[in-house]
Prior knowledge:
- By secondary structure, this protein is of the alpha/beta class.
- Helix content is about 35%, strand content about 20%.
- Strands 1, 2, 3, 4, 5, 6, 7, 8, 9 and 10 form a ten-stranded mixed beta sheet that branches.
- The longest helix has 21 residues.
- The protein is globular and about 60 Å long.
- The mean pLDDT is about 95.
Amino acid sequence: xxxxxxxxxxxxxxxxxxxxxAGVHPSDLGAHxxxxxxxxxxxxxxxxxxxxMGCVSQVGPQALDLARTSWLSAGLPESVPGVTIDRQxxxxxxxxxxxxxxxxxxxxxxxxASGVENMGMVPMGSNVQFAIDNGLGLYGDGWLExxxxxxxxxxxxxxxxxxxxxxxxxxxxEFSLESHQRAAKALEGGYFDDQIAPIAxxxxxxxxxxxxxxxxxxxxxxxxxxxxxxxxxxxxxxVGAGAVLIASEAAVKKHNLTPLARVVQLSLVGDDPVYxxxxxxxxxxxxxxKAGLSIDDIDxxxxxxxxxxxxxxxxxxxxxxxxxxxxxxxxIALGHPLGATGAILMTKLVGELExxxxxxxxxxxxxxxxxxxxxxIERA
Length: 380
């Protein structure tokens, strides 16, 4: 099987839902990182064979095949096609999987994997509002026969995880505090500077709260009475975009590209859709086994902090070293722009492996429907 290499990765800063990026049209966010990716790699844009973009809420300004409109908005060649995909929060990580699989199959040589989401302009859930407003229901008879009328939501899933693993509010808040502290240290140290393409006058992630404390978090109301969850232990509503260029060995030589990392393993697993957020655990076990690696071989892990119990349970079940898990903070501090997060996390992962000198990196995240992608890479 042919090898697939990451030869470029770039992201916008992650903005807050009312921050400076909230007014930037999603196609312009996408165009910004796509153009920057082409410029940074000096690749011949005509040679790109596809642009695969993740986006969850494909409605309004995020409709009409955002991958295609973003590429054209960047002034890039009309000959290059684009497709927009939805695997919920893992959409742009799945875009990377599809791009790498195209290269590894030998049918493609240069593919862009990307993601965009402006949750300030297109609120989460906008794409299902038609069904709700018209009383159509989100689920058909087959689903209801299997799972009944019970609540299916990421919020309930996170609370169910707290109950299953015995996590209490204070433990979640301690994790959240650590996320902000790690992110603040990374910002102060300039760890993200080379990854970010500034836009709209913003050059750093907007969501980090270096001054947060346990006392401040303790003053917040729970998301629901009797629950352990509060807004402080959940990912932030965000705006952002990211893009990664995947190349074959032949393309690396032909276009004089510099590999940043080699794609080692691509795995995908489904799990309980009611718990929804637990799939990264079995998915990681499968990915490590297929790669012939152990969790101790992984130098850096980026696992999306949709809610604190997700990375907490993953770390506990896998026996991972907490210091290697989201070493520069996660979505609780840095934000989670849904369909863009996969590409953003990969950009962070590649950057941290380079900065720290680590060999293997692993990326995973929970996804709607009870799914998870796992990507393992090796620094070139």
